[in-house]
Amino acid sequence: MSENDIWLVAGLGNPEPRYDSTRHNAGFATLDLMAEEAGESFKDSKLSSIARIFKEGGPKIFLDKPLTYMNSSGASVQSMISYYNIDPSRLIVVHDDMDLEVGRVKVKLGGSAAGHNGIKSIDSYLGTPSYYRVRIGIGRPSRPGGSISWVLGKFSPEEKEKMAEGEARAIEAVESIISEGLAKTQERFNAR
Length: 192
Known about the structure:
The protein has helices spanning 26-37, 73-84, 117-126, 147-151, 157-180, 182-189, and strands at 6-11, 43-44, 48-54, 60-66, 91-97, 105-109, 132-137. By secondary structure, it is of the alpha/beta class. Strand 2 (43-44) and strand 3 (48-54) form a beta hairpin.
């Protein structure tokens, strides 16, 4: 299996059921939808919950939901990259972003963690920030200093609708990065 045929898509979130449907679990929710659409399911290993998408004649895509909690996501991602011999340039991380309005999707390669502890952990474990990121907006709290309760809070009914659209667009962005590259994907998703 050539490493050029393999991609790792990591969705960030927290593994306990109490965190289901929280803003911080936007990455997990997106990967759940991606696996479901491919008719795959996740199986737990030591550090990750993993699903595989192998399409005839297409790339091999591993979906990784770290079981290490958000702030230690890098351990799971590093483990997957090492085990499957995947170059970090073929890593796509799907995560929540408070700097974008709810449901908005933007794509980038590398850059700052912008205060996101899951991204900081991955940067630290990999020793590089040079991997793709699909960011899904969760908006900002209305009062200052409420970031932790905001990201661990649930979406309102109106926000759930926007997030469903955002998660579907995030999947399109992942697929676009793999098939069309960064420039075309950014053109399509970042302009607005």
